[in-house]
Write a structure and sequence with these properties.
Blueprint lengths: L20 H18 L1 H10 L23 E5 L2 E4 L4 E4 L14 H14 L9 H14 L3 E5 L2 H16 L3 E5 L12 E2 L6 E2 L14 E4 L4 H8 L4 E6 L15 H11 L3 E5 L10 H5 L6 E5 L9 E5 L1 H9 L19 H14 L2 H25 L4 E5 L2 E5 L8 H6 L3 H12 L3 E2 L6 E3 L6 H19 L1
Parallel strand pairs: 3-15, 5-8, 5-9, 9-10, 10-11
Antiparallel strand pairs: 1-2, 2-3, 4-12, 6-7, 11-12, 13-14, 14-16
Helix pairs in contact: 1-13, 3-10, 4-10, 6-7, 11-14, 13-14
């Protein structure tokens, strides 16, 4: 099995082609100083919050931003964001996909304003007519014919896993090393030379995921077949392409072979389209003609309002509804008081119906293609062994060549110092990338000019590095 990689610290990392680590360290120090000088109000807000916020931030992932403190923002509209110091940035992070529809799209704002100010009743434990419309639209896009709503994609995955276990009578799931399915306990597991292990940094795991989960590498069909042969796997939970460890695309025929294997072994297939929604209006499921048993999605579908959903086939829905041992109406572990609330559902209807449309995705993907071409040209001209990968409206560069084919290969290509340098360099010049990696996402409001601005800044960063 592929070993679990650890990003190399600067003191041990080799020089890159065209630049040395000493210069990179000096550039990082310069950009840190510039970041602190450019954002004094954000630095003060972070310091003021430290006394009452865990880690100084409202959600601990926000500590990932480079420079020692995160930006605090005052307002955000479309593809632009303004921080407390009045700096306006082009936002390619877009809330790490939550704002893929753009910040505060007009149709979504109108729908939630109507729900709050005119109709009232944000959550009543009663359905609204919007719910049926949203479910039918999700069916049109993703194929699954019965849907239920959650507040997050994490919960959608959790509940889909529970249903899969109930339907199959099997205890385990199978995932891929360095997959991303939110904070689902069973998914924090990787491959190592000594067998599967809990992913480093897994906080307070309720049980060792080795007891609940089988793991293999993405694009390793033989490895998946070995894991499924044990006969104890209820479902394979997968992103059609890995997205949170760089973008790792499936090799030709791989996803069809995964589907065939799962059917052969009586295993359900769950496609998590939360990030791969960038591939098109129906994610990879529609774009690539996939046929999963269940689909999960969240983040972007409500324009930034908390919402998620899971869908399953009519046959599976009938089985779970007819199962007297499956308490899905009360406290059986599936459902939540605020899930499917009127505000979330109204936001989903507006976002899917008027914002993240077929026409919008065509434009978003076109801008992403322009972004990708610009970055690739800079990399090629500089002679750097880096790559950039596109998935519809999403693109990401990685410090290796060729493109990684597994999660572990992509993780091994991580370079924390290059990450910090490029994130600081770009944010100091008005470009905001996703802090966890180098992902850029296009919204309907993102333009060719925005993509070109990033290319210009990226080219300057590379030139500065290699001088």
């Amino acid at each position: 099995m592929t070993p679990t990689p650890t990003p190399m610290p600067a003191s041990q990392a080799p020089d890159g082609p065209g630049f040395d680590r000493t210069r990179l360290t000096a550039l990082i120090a310069r950009e840190r100083d510039a970041y602190a000088q450019r954002h004094p109000a954000s630095r003060k807000a972070f310091a003021d919050g430290a006394a009452s916020l865990l880690g100084g931030v409202p959600m601990t992932w926000m500590r990932m931003w480079p420079g020692g403190f995160p930006l605090y923002y005052r307002e955000a509209h479309g593809a632009r964001l303004t921080d407390l110091d009045g700096n306006t940035l082009t936002d390619f992070c877009l809330g790490d996909t939550g704002a893929m529809a753009g910040h505060s799209p007009a149709a979504t704002v109108a729908a939630i304003t109507k729900r709050i100010a005119e109709d009232g009743g944000l959550t009543t434990m009663l359905p609204t007519e919007d719910a049926g419309w949203v479910a039918a639209e999700l069916t049109r896009r993703f194929g699954a014919s019965r849907w239920s709503f959650t507040l997050t994609a994490t919960d959608a995955n959790r509940w889909a896993i529970r249903l899969a276990r109930q339907l199959t009578g099997r205890p385990k799931i199978a995932v891929f090393a360095y997959c991303y399915h939110g904070s689902v306990d069973e998914t924090f597991i990787v491959t190592t030379p000594d067998g599967p292990r809990s992913r480093p940094g897994n906080v307070g795991a309720p049980v060792d995921p080795v007891t609940t989960t089988r793991v293999t590498e993405f694009n390793d069909l033989a490895g998946l077949e070995r894991e499924l042969a044990a006969g104890d796997v209820a479902a394979v939970l997968m992103e059609p392409a890995l997205t949170n460890i760089g973008i790792v695309l499936p090799e030709p025929g791989y996803l069809d072979d995964v589907r065939a294997l799962t059917r052969q072994h009586g295993v359900l297939l769950i496609n998590d389209e939360t990030h791969t929604f960038s591939a098109g209006p129906g994610g990879c499921t529609q774009a690539w003609g996939l046929d999963p048993d269940l689909v999960t999605i969240g983040k972007a579908i409500a324009g930034g309002v908390p919402a998620g959903a899971y869908g399953l086939s009519a046959a599976l829905a009938e089985r779970i509804l007819a199962d007297p041992a499956a308490d899905i109406e009360d406290t059986g572990g599936v459902g939540g008081t605020l899930a499917g609330n009127a505000l979330s559902v109204a936001a989903m209807r507006a976002t899917l119906g008027e914002v993240l449309t077929e026409e919008a995705f065509a434009g978003m993907t076109g801008v992403a293609t322009r972004y990708t071409a610009g970055v690739r040209d800079v990399i090629t001209r500089a002679g750097l062994p880096w790559t950039i990968t596109q998935l519809g409206a999403r693109a990401e560069y990685r410090f290796c060549a060729p493109e990684p084919r597994t999660g572990s290969e992509s993780a091994a290509a991580a370079d924390l110092d290059l990450d910090e340098y490029l994130h600081l360099y770009t944010v100091n010049r008005g470009i905001l990338l996703t802090p966890f990696h180098n992902m850029a996402l296009m919204s309907p409001a993102t333009t060719a000019a925005h993509a070109d601005a990033h290319t210009e800044v990226f080219a300057a960063a590379v030139a500065d590095l290699m001088n």
